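Section 3.1: Structural characterization of target chains.
Under the original work plan, the team committed to producing a structural model for every single-chain target entering the pipeline before any wet-lab resources were allocated. The record below documents one such target. The sequence was received from the expression subgroup and is listed exactly as submitted; it comprises 256 residues.
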Amino acid sequence: MHLDVVDLRKFYYATRLGRMTQRAVRDRLRAMWPETTGMTVAGFGFAAPFLRPFLDDAARVLCLMPAQQGVCPWPDDGPNVAVLVEETLWPFATGSVDRLVIAHGLEVCERPQDLIEEIWRVLSPGGRAIFIVPNRAGLWARRDRTPFGYGRPYSAGQLKRTLATHNFLTERHEAALYMPPSHRAFWLRVGPGLERIGQRIDAQRFAGVALVEVTKLVYIAPKSGLVERVRKPLKVLEGLAPPKPAAGRDTARDLS
């Protein structure tokens, strides 16, 4: 189930909890990718709140939003780089993206396997992607007051196993959103402190979201050492006549 882009935009930009969420996830993402100079960086789903730091150094930043969700212009203070796309058919050449962020995309996708294959296609050889998904064990996946309460939540291990079947190598996984998914003033006031404590003790099991970083693997099929195929292989018993009963023996009598 895709959320409407209007609801996503309202949460991240018009609520205090949304702005805190944006900052917490964005800080973890930037810490994982501190250097993207000269690279093509893209986001899929509703990744716009987390892509802003890359506008400063990446050669190109693009924000893909699925048709089922809708699209909104982004960023507000510069040329628009957001585009509406088919969920599993992107207007990118194969191997043209160096870094890719998937947020509010995989867990709500109707065809997740096809989406992962499209992600693999557009990434450059050795390119990297970070999947930001609701943590199955966290509170945020159990409350529908935020966008992370919709779709299929994942554990980090479950997501890593799924991606491994599509030729992705997991590099590492991080977590964010240790604060409760509440709009109440008290939790909003103590939220930043809880986030710092969660990061310090690395309590990923209790975090709201998992961030799994993977690398695209490209395999080269090995050449066979056999230069020429044998058209008519020699059988081991070729030329030997089938066995015959011994002369002068009555087979029927022997069997009786």
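The mean pLDDT is 88.
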